[in-house]
């Protein structure tokens, strides 16, 4: 209905590690040199980060993740 294709889920791959996703690099840069001492400060900083990003950032990140997933699946199925 929405035009999305469900891809087979590959086994764990370091090439798809969550710590390497597009968004986390931006979050790491945003949090650099911030001194967050309370849970509330962490939550506020995260909300500030999310609110400061454009929709294009998320769109780009999702597209990159889809491409990486497809490459991983193609390499597994080519064995």
Automatic annotation (TrEMBL):
Signal sequence region: none
GO CC term (a single one): site of double-strand break
Keywords: Methyltransferase, Transferase
GO MF annotation terms: DNA topoisomerase binding; double-stranded DNA binding; histone H3K36 methyltransferase activity; histone H3K4 methyltransferase activity; single-stranded DNA binding; single-stranded DNA endodeoxyribonuclease activity
One BP annotation, GO: mitotic DNA integrity checkpoint signaling
Gene3D superfamilies referenced in this protein's UniProt entry, alphabetically: Ribonuclease H-like superfamily/Ribonuclease H (3.30.420.10)
PANTHER family named among the record's database cross-references: HISTONE-LYSINE N-METHYLTRANSFERASE SETMAR, MARINER MOS1 TRANSPOSASE-LIKE PROTEIN
Protein name per Swiss-Prot or TrEMBL: Histone-lysine N-methyltransferase SETMAR
